[in-house]
Amino acid sequence: MNATPDTIVAAATPPGRGGIGIVRVSGPATRAIATAMLDAVPEPRHATVAVFADRDARAIDAGLALFFPAPHSFTGEDVLELHGHGGPVVMDLLVARAIELGARMARPGEFTERAFHNDKLDLAQAEAIADLIDAGSAEAARAALRSLAGEFSREVGELAELVMELRVFVEAAIDFPDEDADFLGSDEVRERLAEIADRFAGIGESARQGRALRDGLLVVIAGRPNAGKSSLLNALAGFDAAIVTEIPGTTRDVLRERIHVDGLPIHLVDTAGLRDSADVVEIEGVHRARAEIGRADLVLYVVDAVLGLGDGERAELPAGTAALIVWNKTDLPEARPAPSLANQPVVSVSATAGAGLPALREQLKSAAGYQADAAGVFSARRRHLDALSRAQGLFELAAARLAERASFELVAEELRHAHEALGEITGAVSSDELLGAVFSGFCIGK
Question: For helices 110-117 and 432-439, what crossing angle results, to 10°?
Answer without folding.
Answer: 140
